[in-house]
User: Which sequence fits this backbone?
């Protein structure tokens, strides 16, 4: 079974999935180098939706850089995520229509408090994906993604090349503070807006 099919199966069974070798070492390295080259363009992450957006370091302390779907430097990643989208639509009938994603850097000590990715009531975010870009992550360095599943909390190590995917409206989660910088790409597959009748 392919990695894509495996993610689809795990999402269908338990609502979340892990793929440790989603990116190989050279793909991971290329994205690390790209993010370093663009570090000046990152901006402090904001919380809330348009209108009520504000920076609040007591909730989240990462810096982000949104990716442009036309950017040739991220086509390998976006194509791979497009394959995942197609597999999920085929196997789970999720109707995923678009993908938005950003790099995120958490400086040492930064965190993102427990939250849900789907903004209540309004949002079409259906599946969250996070791809980690950190060499040789050690558990004692912290920085885990803690997913609050029905079976209890699950900690995901932010090891380079690993992809985690979960249903955006189902699991609260948080990013634990780390003793070193933590780099990732976060993405959200959206359904089409519901038709207004
Ligand atoms: O980086 C992670 O592990 C999760 C990030 C997150 O929860 C978010 O950006 O909404
Ligand atoms: Fe999140």
Assistant:
């Amino acid at each position: 079974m392919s990695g894509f099919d495996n993610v689809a199966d795990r999402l269908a069974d338990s609502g979340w999935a892990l793929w440790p070798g989603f990116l190989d070492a050279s793909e991971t390295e290329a994205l690390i180098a790209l993010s370093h080259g663009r570090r000046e363009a990152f901006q402090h992450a904001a919380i809330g939706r348009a209108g009520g957006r504000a920076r609040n370091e007591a909730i989240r302390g990462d810096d982000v850089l949104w990716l442009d779907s036309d950017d040739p430097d991220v086509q390998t990643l976006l194509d791979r995520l497009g394959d995942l989208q197609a597999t999920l639509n085929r196997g789970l009938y999720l109707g995923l229509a678009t993908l938005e994603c950003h790099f995120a850097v958490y400086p040492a000590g930064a965190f993102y408090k427990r939250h849900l990715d789907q903004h209540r009531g309004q949002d079409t975010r259906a599946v969250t994906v996070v791809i980690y870009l950190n060499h040789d992550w050690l558990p004692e360095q912290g920085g885990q993604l803690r997913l609050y599943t029905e079976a209890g909390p699950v900690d995901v190590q932010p090891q380079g090349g690993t992809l985690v995917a979960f249903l955006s409206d189902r699991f609260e989660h948080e990013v634990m503070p780390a003793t070193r910088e933590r780099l990732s790409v976060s993405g959200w597959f959206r359904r089409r807006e519901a038709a207004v009748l």
Remarks:
- The first strand starts at residue 16 and ends at 19.
- The chain has a mean pLDDT of 93.
